């Protein structure tokens, strides 16, 4: 079914650069021959994979959804693209996104908004979530087998929740970021979208490798310390033989939660309890500050990363007289003023301000403190120790009595996908959608969003008729396999 990218659906605008069958059919046929001979290269040999357009590919452009890179083609492939191609996977095209990954609805793209392949019962278009909305819709509409996205503060998980797909953000540093255009380096991860957890796991197994070209890639020695967690085959038996301890963070039960979302959350917990697992209330007190901290830290890093798009080294140049008499005559100002969309310009201003000498202590430094508190909160509730934390840090953490849980379960987003026509004009309206996804990003933890279907009990006026809600499973650093296995229990 995934080969029907031939049926690429232009109205959804999921792809910025869709590849025509002529560009990939031979490679699929070669893979078919390998399979006939009983020698497939991997579990994804000959499968079509869509790539978010902020991940570099040598053969087709990488635009980042931006006017400033609308003619840019990378001279090299990102490591993740190389890894997939070496495994026999076939690139299906480059998917639409919020410019440079900044957004929650995939509407801030130079190439127009993405439309959700599900629509509201009124027939109106729904948000696909963002920023990896194109990747999520390509998966949901069967235009590829799986898709790669990037998740800095929720950009894989939120679109997964809105489109009814599975979206996985790994522990920070496990998947290479080399050739992935940086938004906020300390938060950026490559994530995977699929129609089920098994397909996501197949891709993760291929991408979960050290890469010397990415300085934040987890070293082989650290990897060996978490190998038992990442690759542990006995996990399956662990899940069936001993119950898992599931934490429910009380701070996530906010009054703004949509009835259908709360219903799906409760349904999930009672389903797991019926399977013999135990539910424990836990407290993550720094949660309420996490969103503000994220929206200080991410733009700060972004303002620095985007400085290179000046029309000289990178970026589509807007020429202007090089005169200091007319400020709008500057090459640099013109290029950046024309090349970047309004949301990206807002982030650059926010970031530049919060890093300025007068504001630094009040914003950036405070946000870094909150980030550490968020990390400590998680360490205090997980039974597993953070495998990269020092012994002192482990001793110092205020472990919550009786709280030792294996995973946390909470909604991915506070509400079902909003109508595209009703998106608020205030940027804050978009930012609040990330309230449940940014904590795992700040702490670098693995998290998966899995679609859970609820039937007929909601009075939620905005709920989609299908009532598919994204439920998120979070785990301790390195517990990526456990997170995926618990996610699978919910399918
Ligand atoms: N919506 C968030 C933002 O705009 C997250 C984006 C992302 O994860 N790339 O920053």
Automatic annotation (TrEMBL):
Pfam families: Amidase. Keywords: ATP-binding, Ligase, Mitochondrion, Nucleotide-binding, Protein biosynthesis. It catalyses: L-glutamyl-tRNA(Gln) + L-glutamine + ATP + H2O = L-glutaminyl-tRNA(Gln) + L-glutamate + ADP + phosphate + H(+). One of its GO terms (cellular component) is mitochondrion. The active site is at residues 52, 131, 155. Residues 215-232 have a biased composition (Low complexity). InterPro entries: Amidase, Amidase_CS, Amidase_dom, AS_sf, GatA. Residues 3-483 form the Amidase domain. Its EC number is 6.3.5.7. It is an enzyme of class 6 (ligase). GO terms for biological process: glutaminyl-tRNAGln biosynthesis via transamidation; mitochondrial translation. Its main location: mitochondrion. One of its GO terms (molecular function) is ATP binding. Residues 213-232 are annotated as: Disordered. It is found in: Mitochondrion. PANTHER family: GLUTAMYL-TRNA(GLN) AMIDOTRANSFERASE SUBUNIT A, MITOCHONDRIAL, TRANSAMIDASE. Belongs to the amidase family. GatA subfamily. Allows the formation of correctly charged Gln-tRNA(Gln) through the transamidation of misacylated Glu-tRNA(Gln) in the mitochondria. The reaction takes place in the presence of glutamine and ATP through an activated gamma-phospho-Glu-tRNA(Gln). Subunit of the heterotrimeric GatCAB amidotransferase (AdT) complex, composed of A, B and C subunits. This is Glutamyl-tRNA(Gln) amidotransferase subunit A, mitochondrial.
């Amino acid at each position: 079914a995934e080969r029907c990218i031939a049926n690429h659906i232009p109205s959804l605008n999921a792809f910025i650069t869709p590849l025509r069958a002529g560009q990939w059919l031979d490679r699929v046929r070669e893979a078919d021959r390998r399979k006939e001979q009983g020698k497939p290269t991997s579990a994804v040999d000959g499968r079509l994979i869509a790539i978010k357009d902020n991940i570099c590919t040598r053969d087709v452009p990488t635009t980042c959804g931006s006017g400033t890179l609308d003619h840019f083609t990378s001279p090299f492939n990102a490591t993740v693209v190389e890894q997939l191609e070496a495994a026999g996977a076939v690139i299906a095209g480059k998917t639409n996104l919020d410019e440079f990954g900044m957004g929650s609805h995939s509407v801030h793209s130079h190439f127009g908004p993405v439309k959700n392949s599900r629509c509201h019962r009124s027939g109106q278009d729904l948000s696909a979530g963002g920023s990896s909305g194109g990747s999520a819709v390509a998966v949901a509409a069967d235009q590829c087998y799986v898709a790669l996205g990037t998740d800095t503060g929720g950009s894989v998980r939120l679109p997964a929740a809105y489109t009814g797909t599975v979206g996985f953000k790994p522990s920070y540093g496990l998947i290479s970021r080399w050739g992935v255009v940086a938004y906020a380096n300390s938060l950026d991860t490559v994530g995977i979208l699929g129609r089920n957890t098994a397909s996501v796991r197949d891709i993760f197994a291929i991408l979960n490798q050290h890469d010397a070209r990415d300085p934040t890639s987890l070293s082989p020695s650290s990897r060996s310390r978490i190998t038992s967690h990442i690759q542990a085959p006995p996990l399956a038996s662990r899940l069936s033989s001993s119950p898992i301890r599931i934490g429910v963070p009380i701070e996530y039960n906010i009054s703004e939660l949509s009835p259908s979302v709360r219903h799906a959350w409760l349904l999930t917990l009672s389903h797991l309890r019926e399977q013999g697992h135990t539910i424990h209330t836990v407290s993550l007190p720094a949660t309420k500050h996490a969103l503000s901290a994220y929206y200080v830290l991410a733009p700060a890093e972004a303002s620095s990363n985007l400085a290179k798009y000046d029309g000289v080294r990178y970026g589509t140049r807007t020429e202007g007289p090089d005169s200091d008499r007319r400020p709008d005559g500057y090459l640099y100002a013109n290029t950046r003023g024309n090349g970047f969309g309004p949301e990206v310009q807002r982030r650059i201003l926010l970031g530049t301000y919060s890093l300025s000498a007068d504001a630094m202590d009040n914003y950036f430094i405070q946000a870094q403190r909150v980030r550490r508190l968020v990390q400590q909160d998680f360490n205090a509730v997980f039974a597993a120790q953070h495998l990269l934390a020092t012994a002192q840090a482990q001793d110092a953490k205020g472990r919550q009595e009786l709280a030792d849980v294996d995973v946390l379960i909470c909604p991915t987003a506070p509400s079902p996908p909003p109508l595209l026509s009703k998106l608020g004009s205030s940027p804050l309206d978009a930012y609040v959608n990330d309230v449940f996804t940014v904590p795992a990003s700040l702490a670098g933890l693995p998290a998966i969003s899995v679609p859970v279907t609820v039937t007929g009990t909601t009075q939620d006026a905005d709920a989609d008729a299908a009532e598919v809600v994204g439920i998120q499973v979070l785990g301790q650093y390195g517990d990526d396999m456990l997170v995926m296995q618990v996610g699978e229990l919910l399918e």
